[in-house]
Amino acid sequence: MIQALSGRLPFYYGWIVLAAVAAASISRQGPAVSTLSIFMDPMSHEFGWTRTEISGAVSLGGLLGALAAPLLGPFLDRNGARAMLSFAVLATGIPLLCISWVTSLPMFYLLYSFARMNFTGPYDLGIYGAIINWFKRQRALAISVTTLALMSGLVAMPLIAHFSMEQYGWRGAWLFVGATVMIVGFLPVWLFIVRRPEDLGLTLDGGAAVAPGTDDNAQTAVASADADEPVFTRAQAFRTSAFWMLAAYTFLIYPIQSGVSLHQAPALLEKGLDPTIAATAVSTFSLVSAIAGFCYGFWPRRIPLGYALALVGLILAAAPASMYLTQSVAMAYVSAALFGLGIGGLLTMLPIAWADYFGRRSFGAIRGVALAIQVIAQATGPLIGGVLRDWSGDYKLSLLTFAGLGCAGTLAALFAKPPKPC
To answer: 421 lies in a domain?
Structure first.
């Protein structure tokens, strides 16, 4: 059916794949740390849990995702994104629905950590694996559209959580978040995603290729499409300095992304701001991220990607420093917007760098290892924020630590140059 549909379309079928990926990207944000941040105060007050205890669920889920990602990467290369993303949506939405019945910290850890594992593992690999396999010349545009969808979900999910919480309490809010994940994400992925264009007789970015259905023909088409882009195996990528510089950048920058996202709303409440201001500030950073991520997709290709990553690092150093100085509603929105500007760039430019540097042939295997590093870094961010806050009594030291990590990540980006072909 899909093959017949792709042949009748007046446009490239990859755009339908991208639309399905965008829906999955929106649904991904159910267990996002920004969504969880809306639940931190009411759940802490009801159960007496500390911020460190709640943050630990994020970290545990990230570590589980880190363990799974290197194993899932080769599976993605062999089987494509459809199965992985379908599993990710179901295995995220169902646990989030069940959190509404939580009565203990271990129960919360079991459910949220499993959902978070899918957020950091299958979702990420499936989303970017689908795009890399369908787009090359328009890869930056496709990833920027995905970033726009990701951040649109991050605008929507905290607001869904906040306003449903006002009407139905935090338990009802988890039901709304879980239902949104299931409704938005599953059917588009299941019905429309195809592993790669060669399976439909198409080529990267559009155009007729070979008759589909023959493995030899498909492999020939894939080899032809890959002829003018880097082709690295995972072992070959490990032997390049580019891999380790991008890995170092990832390890330094992603604690800022997860740590500030989770603790942003509580930090604003700590400064005496209204809960609605805190929730809308979280959504402001998400809205700016969506716009910025889309705009980064038009980064001039003649300017090295390392410079774009360095710019993102500088912005993500400035954002927590600005939050440290926040004393008013206006400053809260300014610092949130600055954070969004950096996150939008990070989510768009880093996947482009991985794909452009190492190609699509073994993208899943390479990205799986890189993702393990990423989710370990994401796991440390909430703990840094929570532990330093509980130890010092406020969020000042946490925010300064995140600013320092951003400066260090900027230096790593400047050394991340494209590898020479093997």
So the answer is: no
Asked if the structure places residue 419 within a domain, the reply is no
| E-state strands within 227-315 | none
Q: What share of the chain is helix, strand, coil (3-state, %, to 5)?
A: 80, 0, 20
Supply the pTM of this predicted model.
Answer: 0.78
Domain of residue 327: give its range: 2-414
Residue 142 in tokens:
């496709």
> Which secondary structure element, helix H or strand E, spans residue 35, and what is its range?
helix 33-47
Both tokens of 29, joined, read 């944000």
Q: Is residue 422 part of a domain?
A: no
Residue 259, C-beta contacts closer than 8 angstroms, at least 6 positions apart: 380, 381, 382, 384, 385, 398, 402
Domains of the chain: total = 1
CA neighbours within 13 Å on the CB side: how many for 74? 5
In 80-214, which residue ranges form alpha helices assigned H by DSSP? 81-98, 105-120, 122-134, 139-192
Cβ atoms of residues 177 and 160 within 8 Å: yes
73-112 per-position pLDDT tens digit = 888 888 888 999 999 999 999 999 999 999 999 999 999 9
We report the CATH number of the domain holding residue 360 as: 1.20.1250.20
**Is 178 part of any domain?**
yes
115 close to 30: Cβ distance less than 8 angstroms: yes
State whether residue 126 is helix, strand or coil.
helix
Provide CB contacts within 8 A for 185, sequence distance 6+: 23, 24, 26, 27, 28, 85, 89, 92, 93
User: Beta partners for 208?
Assistant: 202
Distance of alpha carbon 148 from alpha carbon 196, whole angstroms: 23
pLDDT in tens, 132-178: 889 888 888 899 899 889 878 877 898 899 999 999 999 999 999 99
Give tens-digit pLDDT for 269-289: 777 677 777 777 777 877 888
Instruction: Give kind and range of the element (H or E) at residue 251.
Output: helix 241-270
422 vs 62 pLDDT, higher one: 62
Cα–Cα distance for residue pair 411/54, rounded to 1 Å: 32
CA-based nearest residue to 108, from 163, 53, 167: 53
The yes-or-no verdict on residue 67 having pLDDT over 90 is no
Q: How far apart are CA 163 and CA 276, in angstroms?
A: 9
Q: Which residue has the tokens 């592993």?
A: 195
Contact between residue 351 and residue 116 where contact means Cβ atoms under 8 Å apart: no
Please state, in angstroms and rounded to a whole number, the distance separating the CA atoms of residues 389 and 317. 19
Express each pLDDT in 311-333 by its tens digit: 999 999 998 888 877 777 777 88
Q: Which of 103, 81, 105, 101 is nearest to 28 (CA)?
A: 81
